[in-house]
Amino acid sequence: MKPSASERSFAHSRIVPEPNVQPLDPPIPPEDCPECRARSPLDSEHDPFSKVGRKLACQSAIGELMDDLGSAMTTQPDVLMLGGGNPAAIPEIRQTWRGLMRGLMAREDQFDRMLANYEPPRGNPQFIQAFSNLLLKRYSWPVTPDNIAVTNGTQVAAFVLFNLLAGRGQGGAKRKILMPMAPEYIGYADQGLEADLFVVCRPAISWPDGESKRRFKYHIDFAAVEQCLESGDIAAITVSRPTNPTGNVLTEEELIRLSDLAARYAIFLVVDNAYGVPFPKVVFTEAKPYWAPHVINLFSLSKLGLPGVRTGIVVGPSEIAAAIQSWTAIVGLANNNVGQQLVLPLIENGELLELGPRILQPFYRERSWAAQESIEEYLGAAKVDWALHVSEGAFFLWLWLRGLRYTSRELYRRLKSRNVLIVPGEYFFYGLSDPWPHQHECVRISFSQSPEIVREGIRRLAEVAASRG
């Protein structure tokens, strides 16, 4: 295909505009995995894997996403990466990490201990004490080191929590995790060691400034949530805030209402703050950290710009922190030391909480605005019927292509053939009990890459979405 003039101009930025490649398959949900389907009950005795092993070995949406992300960031630099959750390369943030690492290297004894010693499975005691002090001083949370455990990222923390709390209990009854509002984070979808671990509610949709403005917002359907809770088989309610993939920030009123419901039914409320408050605080609206005795908060260093150190922090009831400590000891001995040691000075002096408002929040807000302008320009010119979820936080725009003639998985396939990666929306709607056309019309677009890359990716998306082919 001959590049257009705009694509030839864009090629000067070293992005290949139209590669001659065949489209690859989109992520395959576990129930469609040919490797799993090939194992019939008749030959199950010859399968070397257990049921759990077979489930974990099958292709997953998050596995395909991370494969795409890793390839695009390493071996395929010409791909326009509008998928994945990798943080942007922000010079001031990177300088911060380099300065802290130089300080660590200058303190040779501390540097050597960081690399050469195992820490306790709960985490570095100095790190945990400092984090406890920070939460008490800044937010008056009545937490101690007994309420805190470190993990190798919040993805691991969620996996541990879901399987600690849900599944078949001692008495044989099965308990589940309730997601009060789809779409929800793709990384949760395959984390249950037992099948059908999640119950998910369809959201209500509003148009804050009228449908003509093309901005919509999801809201929790609390009647549906209460109906699920009345079944008596819910072990915990889980939300991400801001929600990945939509950037929806649950209001304080919604969070309090969920917390009250959890307390009434004597279950836990898990709040994943990977993009949220108090850090990294990639939030463009009002939001405060929330604590209650039955709430389990998850925090991460990844979206600060440190995904490679794999450090998550769980704050919750002491029995939960102790269980995570035991789990870590069994499956991994200890956690990564580097992240804990690197950010310790920022926790001790409180500067960790300033990086978001001072650097991250304005940076990503501007990137969000730029991406929204490109969508309005290119999809409008292509006469595509579109709408965006209001952008309240995180690194993503959630695009609704109303009346899309094929699924978002097929759109993914077509865009991949044009060197653009997005994430199809289907994979964020796991656990819904009834089919919903809306779930096939949405895609997640990351605006972490440079505005030029995001703009060109959106231009190609508009062409593909408008094409009658």
The percent range for helix content is: 25-40%
Low-pLDDT residue intervals, each spanning 5 or more residues:
1-31, 37-42
> How many DSSP H or I helices?
15
The largest pleated sheet is described as: 8 strands, mixed
Number of beta strands = 16
End-to-end separation? 15 Å
Can you identify the CATH superfamily of the domain at 116-353? Type I PLP-dependent aspartate aminotransferase-like (Major domain)
| CATH level 3 topology of the domain at 116-353 | Aspartate Aminotransferase, domain 2
The CATH architecture name of the domain at 116-353 reads 3-Layer(aba) Sandwich
Gross morphology: globular
Q: C-alpha Rg, in Å?
A: 22 Å
Text of the CATH class of the domain at 116-353: Alpha Beta
